[in-house]
Write a structure and sequence with these properties.
It is a single chain. By secondary structure, the chain is mainly alpha-helical. It has one domain. About 65% of the residues lie in helices and about 10% in strands. The chain has five helices and two strands, in the order E-E-H-H-H-H-H. Helix 2 packs across helix 3. The two termini are about 25 Å apart.
Length: about 120
């Protein structure tokens, strides 16, 4: 489990990434976070390369992932994304998105290393 605090509009918001995130995301949104984050990473890379804007679908994925990671870190946040987002002024997704993607990537690296270690211990 990895946690990171990100400043959004002057508010310190804690985010958490762990093996629980895909399940929470699937239960809440009925979607596969792995597919969604792959799509979001590609869109973000294209935006950085071509200076394009993100599509509405990509913005929604960002909001969903950010909400689930914030909820995982603090279950007392508002129960809907709309209520959660409403507590912030307008902010640049491009400042927060790289932090979220980094947090997710760090968690994946940790999971892979843990599985390798388990395989070595179990002799597989």
């Amino acid at each position: 489990m990895i946690e990171k605090t990100i400043d959004i509009c002057g508010k310190e918001v804690k985010f958490r990434s762990s093996a629980t995130i895909p399940r929470l995301y699937r239960i809440k949104f009925k979607r596969d976070i792995f597919k969604d984050l792959t799509k979001l990473e590609k869109a973000y890379s294209k935006k950085a390369k071509d200076d394009d804007d993100l599509e509405i679908d990509d913005l929604e994925i960002f909001e969903n992932v950010a909400y689930i990671m914030a909820f995982h870190a603090n279950p007392s946040i508002p129960k809907t994304i709309d209520e959660w987002l409403d507590q912030f002024d307008m902010f640049s997704i491009y400042q927060v998105l790289p932090e979220i993607l980094t947090l997710w990537g760090e968690n994946l690296i940790t999971d892979v290393e843990a599985k390798k270690g388990l395989a070595e211990v179990s002799g597989k």
